[in-house]
Amino acid sequence: MGNVVIALLPAVLAAGLIFGVQALVLVAVTTLACVAFEYIYEKLLKKSNTVGDLSAVVTGIILALNMPVGMPLWIAVVGAFVAIVITKQLFGGLGYNFANPALVGRIVLFLGFTSRMTAYVYPDMAVDALASATPLAVADKTTLPLLDVFLGFRGGMMGEVCVLAILLGFAYLVATRTIQATIPVTIVATVFILTTLNTGDPYAALIECMSGGLLFGSVFMATDYVTSPMSKNGMLVYGVGIGILTTVIRLFGSYPEGMSFAILIMNAFTPLINSYIKPKHFGGK
Of 4-13, 48-57, 120-129, 149-158, which one has max mean pLDDT? Predict the structure, then answer.
């Protein structure tokens, strides 16, 4: 969990640079709310305190980075409650949650506070916050400057806009063997291939992969130990499934973004994948 916190720091810093101090305030409030809800819940039920394992901190940071910078703080606290109390603690705590807590928190906020969750803004570097469409909402993605999309000078959720920051976190997690690269690479490759086949334009497919929550979700949510498969082949199936669902929802669904729903659906299939695609026993053939 400590490694995940470190890996998230580039995205937090990028959010602060791009969106301003308000982004850091939102991260701080959401993280503190997650830690507080976990502590209070376990205290009331007289359970052993698990705040020190940093899982609530990770959930809080990821949840905050899945919000636009203009999100009211009280709504962020509601998301923290859904993530920690309902998704995590009511199912038995860390290791027993059926889905990534931050992911469920994001989906609940998206469905319950849609206008707030889609109020994308970015700060004009000199003066004020301006409305900004996300790359997913732009019909002709070939008109978008690749460098702007890569560095995060666009609208979107705080943690998903800066591709550079996400890749730095990904590199750190892989280098420290906190996660394997299998799931993120499989998801992105699947979306890229399917989008290229659909559009016939690799550049548009590249922008599609760098847009929305695809990269952030692939690195920080789809790789959750509890809700992702254990074996390498299982991870491949899981990653391809997320990539296919994300592409289908983006192309044919009513929402331009499909990553969150795709991960949640494949989280539900993880036990089935683990049942049919089991890792080899040590020393086995």
Answer: 4-13
Q: pTM, whole model, 2 decimals?
A: 0.88
Between CA 194 and CA 251 the distance in angstroms is: 10
DSSP string for residues in the chain: -HHHHHHHHHHHHHHHHHH-HHHHHHHHHHHHHHHHHHHHHHHHTTPPP-GGGSHHHHHHHHHHHTS-TT--HHHHHHHHHIIIIIIIGGGTSTTT-SS-HHHHHHHHHHHHSHHHHT--EEE-SSS-EEE---GGG-S-GGGS-HHHHHHT-S-S-TTTS-HHHHHHHHHHHHHTTSS-SHHHHHHHHHHHHHHHHHHS-HHHHHHHHHSTTHHHHHHHTTT-TTTS-SSHHHHHHHHHHHHHHHHHHHHHSSSS--HHHHHHHHHHHHHHHHHHSPPPPTT--
Q: Give residue 49's pLDDT band: very low, low, confident or very high (50, 70, 90).
A: confident
Q: Pick from 4, 58, 12: which is nearest to 177 by CA?
A: 4
**Cα 230 to the center of its chain, rounded Å:** 20
Structure tokens at 60: 């809080």
Each residue's pLDDT tens digit, 256-274: 788 989 999 999 999 999 8
Q: Which residues of 12-43 are buried (b: 16+ CB within 10 A; e: fewer)?
A: bebbbebbeebbbebbebbbebbbbbbeebbe
